[in-house]
């Protein structure tokens, strides 16, 4: 893990970890505070619960990480039109302002809402599941993280 001063492009703290944890982030922040640093903002990945743990600061989710989450769900070259459009929208994060991005995402959702709600019944179990769970997960990830992007 690396904590970097974005103004001076200097690494201030690092730790070798197998997986990142909220406790590791908090240790890094505490290290900075104990050494007199003033923390203005934090840009971090979307680790579950991290934003809440850092709520005393202005926190932004790393846009690159969000795009990678979307790409994980949708692949690099999706075949369905809805999926292609959502992938393209996700890549617009770095090229639009918040309000513009929200409008584009809402327009996409209006157009594809019924499609991502489609359900399929498994013939063996009789259980109903979403027909396009990865597309749905990608959209919900964007929707859930909007306030931090």
Provide a descriptive summary of the structure in words.
The chain is of the alpha+beta class and 149 residues long. 48% of the residues lie in helices and 15% in strands. The protein contains six helices and six strands. The chain has helices spanning 22-34, 50-53, 63-74, 81-90, 98-117, 133-145; strands at residues 2-5, 10-14, 41-44, 58-61, 119-121, 128-130. A two-stranded antiparallel ribbon has the order 1-2. Strands 3-4 form a two-stranded parallel ribbon. A two-stranded antiparallel ribbon has the order 5-6. Strand 5 and strand 6 form a beta hairpin. Helix 4 (81-90) runs parallel beside helix 6 (133-145) and helix 5 (98-117) packs antiparallel against helix 6 (133-145). The radius of gyration is 19 Å and the shape is elongated. The model has no long low-confidence stretch (mean pLDDT 94).
């Amino acid at each position: 893990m690396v904590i970097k001063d974005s103004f001076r492009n200097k690494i201030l703290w690092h730790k070798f970890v197998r997986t990142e944890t909220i406790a590791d982030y908090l240790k890094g922040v505490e290290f900075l505070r104990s050494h007199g640093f003033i923390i203005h903002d934090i840009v971090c990945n979307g680790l579950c619960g991290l934003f809440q743990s850092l709520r005393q600061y202005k926190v932004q989710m790393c846009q690159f990480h969000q795009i990678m989450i979307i790409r994980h769900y949708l692949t690099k070259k999706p075949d369905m039109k809805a999926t292609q459009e959502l992938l393209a929208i996700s890549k617009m994060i770095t090229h639009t302002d918040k309000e513009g991005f929200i409008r584009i995402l809402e327009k996409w959702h209006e157009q594809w809402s019924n499609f991502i709600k489609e359900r399929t019944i498994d013939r063996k179990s009789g259980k109903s599941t979403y027909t396009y769970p990865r597309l749905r997960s990608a959209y919900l990830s964007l929707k859930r993280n909007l306030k931090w992007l």
